[in-house]
Amino acid sequence: MDVKTIAVMGAGTMGHGIAEVAALAGFNVFLRDINDQILSRAMDNIKWSLQKLHEKGQLREDPAQVLSRIRATVDLAEAVKEADFVIEAAFEDIDVKRQIFTEVDKHAPPHAILSTNTSSLPISEIAAFTSRPHAVIGMHFFNPPPLMKLVEIIMGNATSRETLGAALDLARRMGKEPVVVNKDVPGFIANRVFLRLSDSACLMVERGEASIEAIDSAARYSLGFPMGVFELLDFVGIDVMDFIARAMAARGVSRVPCKLIEDKVKAKELGLKSGRGFYSYP
Ligand code: CAA
Questions:
Q1: Judging by DSSP bridges, how do beta strands 150-154 and 136-140 pair with one another?
Q2: Taking the complete model, does pTM exceed 0.80, yes or no?
């Protein structure tokens, strides 16, 4: 499949980063969200990121040229009508996904592949909102998309081998390292493994066995993580990881209750985005 045009649904943290990565790889990109304010913030963030990459000599062309391949729009039908590949990165709510996938299915060309960047919802459930479940697949990027190499490619129950091949090819053309998740399992790979780790870390702190800082130092300087466990929770959003853990629990992956996380969510100390989480961000 010769992909030329990609439509990204949702211009939040993940959506705008994915749109940037797609434009960097030379694709024509439509970036869609529900209002101009969100889109304008997204384009500012993309400009900032491209400038950073440019300053470090990591761009082969002018940032303005990359930017010129991205068209921001609030019109869903316009965004997907020429798309060969759609990547949905909207809010993690099954009703929002239902609305988007129903509309995208209606307006995207019949050959278009529809993918979702969901981190917590079943691919097969999302695929069932469309008339083409064989052409629906999970493409889970990591934050920040321009810097993180991994993309999890998740098979739904009905996803075809052709769709898998096209998703792998696209991820590689976007400069990513795709890994295939053969079954539509809760949490896929990275979140499933990370939640076990963060559960253990939380329990150790709750029992007074080690401090947050000590655990983060162990993660950085022995386990080889680029960020400590609590630093990463702050970076991703404590509420986001809590939501993912709840979604996994609802699908049968047992959860260790962690008061430390519950208290942070209740106090709205959600990490980097709220200025305070396990650490403070002036
Ligand atoms: N675009 C361009 N440049 C960026 C950027 C972006 N989006 N974000 C950060 N940078 C820049 C920084 O500004 C910084 O630039 P300077 O050198 O000019 O200061 C540079 O990249 C390096 O950043 P830092 O010095 O802050 O830190 P770093 O070297 O540790 O790299 C990191 C940053 C790549 C984020 C690294 O810390 C890392 O890999 N952290 C782990 C991230 C991770 O695990 N993400 C996955 C989260 S889970 C998820 O996303 C999925 C889910 O389902 C929730």
A1: antiparallel
A2: yes
